Each structure stands twice: as C-alpha cells, then as structure tokens.
Amino acid sequence: MKKPDNEPKPDNQTEKCLRELRSRIISGQWPGATKLREVPLATDLDVSRTPLRAALLKLEQEGLLERSGAGYTVRAFSFKDALVAIELRGMIEGMAVRLAAERLNIGDHLTAIKATVAALDTVVQQEHTDGYGDLNKLFHDQLTALAGNDLIRDEVQRASRLPFAAPSAFSSSKDDYERFKESLVVGQQHHHALLQAIERGEGARAEALAREHAHLAKINIEVAFKVRAEKLHHMPQLALITD
Amino acid sequence: MKKPDNEPKPDNQTEKCLRELRSRIISGQWPGATKLREVPLATDLDVSRTPLRAALLKLEQEGLLERSGAGYTVRAFSFKDALVAIELRGMIEGMAVRLAAERLNIGDHLTAIKATVAALDTVVQQEHTDGYGDLNKLFHDQLTALAGNDLIRDEVQRASRLPFAAPSAFSSSKDDYERFKESLVVGQQHHHALLQAIERGEGARAEALAREHAHLAKINIEVAFKVRAEKLHHMPQLALITD
DNA sequence: TTGTGAAATAATGTATACATGAAAAAGCCT
DNA sequence: AGGCTTTTTCATGTATACATTATTTCACAA
User: Fold this and answer.
1) Is there a single domain that holds both residue B166 and residue B202?
2) Which among A105, B55, B73, B158 is least buried, having the fewest CB atoms inside 10 angstroms?
3) A54, A74, A94 — which closes off a domain?
4) If you average pLDDT over each of B61-65, B197-201, B215-219, which comes out highest?
5) How far apart are CA A217 and CA A168, in angstroms?
6) Kindly report the CA angle at A115 between A112 and A118, in degrees rounded to 5?
7) Is the pLDDT of residue B223 over 90?
8) Which runs of E-coded beta strand occur in chain B?
9) How many Cβ pairs within 8 Å bridge chains A and B?
10) CATH number of residue B44's parent domain
11) Please, which positions of strand D sit below 7 A from a protein CB?
C-alpha cells in the first residue's frame, strides 16, 4: 500500500504556479469564464510557460479550470454545485468509513485519530475557534486513511478538493458566532460517534454518520450564502459561486 | 451549463501519447512499479518530451500512474481496488440518477436515451453481443447527463476512468457465454427500471437500482478473476490487477 | 446591413538546449 | 571488507525559439 503521503513536496516553479493560481482563482479575482492567456500569466508569475502549463493542466484536472477551445477559462460554480460537491464528499467519505468499520483489528489503528479527537474536544470547549480548521482537516485525513485502501482514500481527498467542499471549508465564522459554535459541538459529537461506530464494526451506522456530518456542512454553506454579500471578504471560497 | 462534450478532440501529439500510453499500461506490458523514463519513452513514441510530459501528468491525475520521487511508475491495483472502484462508480452514478429523478420535467429529456435502450433491447436478443459495449457506454453517458449538473456528470465519468471500473469493462466474454448472456438480460432490465424510476420521480429507487447495476459488474469481475489465467488475453484490463 | 471568406494576428502546441537536482558509481578511509 | 564520502552520470525541471492552429479582423459581395 502507498504510504500516507509524507512527500516533502518539492518547491519548484510548478508548485509556485499552483499555489498562486489556486489562490487567485479562489479569491474570485477572475470572474467566471475569464480566459487565461499563458504568456501574460507567465510574465506576471515570473516563470516560463512550461511550468505554468503544467500547473494549468493540474488545475484543469482538479476542476477549477476548464478548456474552452484553445486555452483555459475559470470554472464557475452554482450554488447547486456546491451542495452536490458536499453531498458527494459525504457519500464517498461514508463508503470509506464503512470499509474502515469492516476491517479486522481496526482498533489497532485508532490511536492517532483518537488523539486528534481529544485535541478537538479542547478546541470546541474554548471560547474561540482558533486551530479548529487544521485539526478538523487532520481528523478527516486520518479518517479516510482508516479504510486501508489507497483508492478510496485518494477519492475522498479528491472529493474535498473544491474550496467549498472541503471538510473545513466553513470552519470559521465571524458573524453569528453562537449558531456556528453549536454546529461545531454537533460536528464534534459526530466525530466521536464516527470513531465509536468504526471501532464497533458498525459499518452502516458509520456511513450514515459521515453523510449526516457532511450535511452539517451543507447547512453551514446555506447560511453563509444567505448573508453572502457581507461575508465575501471573510469567506473567499464563496467568490467562486455565481448563482 | 457546459455542453455535453461534443468536442471533436484535437488530434495532437499529446493525444497520441495518451492513447498509446493508456493502451500499453492497460495491456499490462509494464509490470507494476515499472519506472518510466521520459527520454527513451519519447524516442519510442516518436514525440518530444513536452507532449509526453503532458500525457504523463494526465495519466497521473487519472490514477494510472503515480509519482515515485522523480519520475513516474505504473500503478498496481489489487482485486479489492477493483471492487472498490466499481462500488464507488455505482454510488456516484446512483446519486446522479437520484438527482435526475428529482428534476422537474425530466420526461422531456428522455427521448434520446429511450432510443438507446431500445437499441440495446435488440442487441440483447441477438445471438451474439457485438455492439453491446458501445451502446452500453452511450446509455451510461446519457444517463449521467440526465442529472443536469456538470459536476456530478464529470465525477461519474471520472469514476468510470479505470479500465475495470467502466460500465462496459466486462461486456464481452468468450467463455461461459450462457452465464454472461444472462447477466446482460438482467442488466438490460435494470436499464428499463432505471428509466422508469427516473421518469416517475422515484429517486430512491433509481439510486438503489444504479447501485445494484454496478453490483452486477462486481459479480462479473469476480467470475472473470477466478478464471483469470485463461482469460488474460481476452481481458487485458485484468493485467493491471496484481493480487 | 449582414453574411461569408480570406488574410492577418495572436494564441497554444512542439521541439530542443540548458540548468538543476537526484541517483549511481567510484574512491577513500576505517 | 564494509561503510562513508565524493564525484560523476543521468534524469527531470526549466526556458525559449519555432511550428501549428485557432481567433479575430477586414474586405467584399449579396
């Protein structure tokens, strides 16, 4: 089996392009359907066209860009797309945790993730939410690894690639703090229940929990979308969504 | 919404590399973990390194290759991987048909796919199975388009990318013809039921049918795998699977 | 005025030379 | 002899010039 991605990630020009392009796309500085021209972009990013093209190709596979004849355009997402993406992630994550629950001796592999959940417990009890996003991401990464299958792990990772579909996409909220804090408490209860279900070999329950957990993200994005105008600067992910 | 991919696909060097490399990988002529070197490959394929690298990058995203330090290696799949991939496709396809069933006035969009099912009816009644694979692929393509959402359509397409996960992966069988013919009959019944469920707005039923339909593919691959040695030359997809 | 066509323009596609880094080989020391 | 360091070699990463193809623009005719 493939190792859990401990690659140090080479810091080459292609990575630089990827980081910068992702950031620009997500920030919404390119309105949907903007055509990206290679030469000006390369000049702007201070790299040659070769690594830039490699980055563009990757972003196309990620679904953030799409070809339009010759060249790429920024992909525009609808609100419905965001809901579909989140539900999709929930489904695939659900399959992953079901497989984990069906594994023999899964208990032996739960040490690390239990520590993460414990750390999340303390964060949720805090008065602020600092560090929640990172820990939550770690939890979900560890969760998908529990299935013990590279294919399903990769697919969950992929389903989380869109900025609004990731588990920690809306894990901070300046406004409406109380409501958000409650959703964190519920989410954390899901985390505990998820682990318990996996440990007990309750595959169907684990799968249902993963889906419900994703549903929580759906609710969060729906709330966020309603007050979109005011929140745009807090949640750049929303800039990608056009209707 | 994006158009249903009527792009004529430019016939450039990158496409040539993709075709050739896919064919070589699937045929199993490179044992798992074979390192691919760019320069010899480029010479062999009679292209420069630039389009070759583009093709390699795409195949990495497809999951047929993986990076190993510097350079690519052919990804090896286990039997479990194949089962997971098929079930995954069934799940995602299931979500797609559920969305289709939940659409208003979906009946207006069923003309083309009904024609495909009718064509499949005649093929299934034949004494041979010529043309089944192509028609079946067409049916599934049209099916995923019914959801009316580019994101879910793209994801179903992606879930079908692995040679053993595609809907028509094992749609021919020289040996054990009778058993295989029966599975075709059952599969075709699924097709009819799927359309009926979508037309009537029975989302849950449509989803369940899509999953069961994928399960049929699982059974087929299990049977095929048991007699793998004799069938390798008929089913090159199996060469990818190592244990 | 609008449609069609061809020519001009500008973009992406490709090849190749060079830079950089990693892996392999050789030599040295212990 | 074995293991470590150094050097060499070779593969990938990058830049850029050139080829090809797509797009735009302008002219001309219906």
Assistant:
1) yes
2) A105
3) A74
4) B197-201
5) 9
6) 155
7) no
8) 35-36, 65-67, 72-74
9) 62
10) 1.10.10.10
11) 11-17, 21-23
